[in-house]
């Protein structure tokens, strides 16, 4: 009788654990965001949190998919981009935890340094306001251009105060920037797309953003979901020592933990 009772209790415990399991879908962009979330998913599965990772090739769709209920969370964007999306599109979304910082870099197929940018040269930058502005701020930090006062984190090429080399800016979808290197003298590329294109930021970039930039990436959920148990579990696993070790060893400084 005792053996039967023990087996019954074990079955009940297993049943309860299965009932407590949660299935969620998380949207990411290719490269490090996808690779890190896949590692998080491996660690989460034994804890009863089953994560389906879905990749998107651009920065626009993941927030719309989250707002529409097609995703439970996404992990691909920094805070200025999220704030701009909420302002422009009215999304009711909330950041629940920091993930990584990926310093933006300047790349070129023909130049070895920014100083070699020719007069009238073409520079490709992202066409969304926050990442395009981030690219211009990087070029300003390196002394290539000067922006008008008060443009904040989202300047555009229309906000140039000084452009001594008379550079021409090509505003393109962020995911297409690696391909633009054959048509431009340089391109300012987000690290996730640079890595996805086979570039090594530490050795291939001719200039890099400072590590203390305000562009820490975040995990985002719909407003109202912030306090759900699976959200805390997701963030805690992402912030685990195992995930930090994975990031530090895999990306060799091109991707930096932000927590």
Automatic annotation (TrEMBL):
It is a lipid-anchor. CDD domains: PBP2_lipoprotein_IlpA_like (cd13598). SUPFAM superfamilies: Periplasmic binding protein-like II. The lineage of its organism: Bacteria, Pseudomonadati, Pseudomonadota, Alphaproteobacteria, Rhodobacterales. Keywords: Lipoprotein, Membrane, Palmitate, Signal. NCBIfam families: MetQ/NlpA family lipoprotein (TIGR00363). It holds the Pfam family Lipoprotein_9. The keyword Magnesium does not apply. It is found in: Membrane. Residues 1-19 form the signal peptide. It comes from the Bacteria. One of its GO terms (cellular component) is membrane. InterPro entries: Lipoprotein_NlpA. This is Metal ABC transporter substrate-binding protein. It comes from Paracoccus contaminans. Belongs to the NlpA lipoprotein family.
């Amino acid at each position: 009788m005792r053996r039967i009772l023990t087996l019954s209790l074990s079955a009940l415990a297993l049943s309860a654990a299965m009932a407590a399991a949660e299935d969620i879908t998380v949207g990411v962009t290719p490269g490090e965001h996808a690779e890190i979330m896949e590692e998080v998913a491996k660690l989460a599965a034994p804890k009863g949190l089953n994560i389906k990772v879905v990749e998107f090739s651009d920065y626009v769709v993941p927030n719309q998919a989250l707002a529409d209920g097609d995703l439970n969370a996404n992990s691909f964007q920094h805070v200025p981009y999220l704030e701009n999306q909420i302002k422009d599109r009215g999304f009711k979304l909330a950041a629940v935890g920091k993930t990584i910082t990926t310093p933006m870099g300047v790349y070129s197929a023909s130049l070895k340094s920014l100083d070699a940018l020719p007069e009238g040269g073409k520079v490709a930058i992202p066409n969304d306001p926050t990442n395009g502005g981030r690219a211009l701020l990087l070029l300003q930090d390196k002394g290539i251009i000067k922006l008008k006062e008060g443009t904040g984190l989202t300047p555009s090429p229309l906000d140039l105060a000084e452009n001594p080399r008379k550079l021409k800016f090509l505003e393109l979808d962020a995911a297409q920037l690696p391909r633009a290197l054959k048509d431009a003298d340089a391109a300012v590329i987000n690290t996730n797309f640079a890595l996805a294109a086979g570039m090594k930021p530490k050795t291939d970039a001719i200039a890099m953003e400072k590590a203390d930039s305000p562009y820490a990436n975040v995990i985002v959920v719909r407003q109202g979901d912030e306090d759900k148990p699976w959200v805390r579990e997701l963030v805690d696993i992402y912030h685990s020592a195992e995930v930090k070790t994975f990031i530090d060893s895999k990306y060799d400084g091109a991707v930096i933990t932000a927590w």
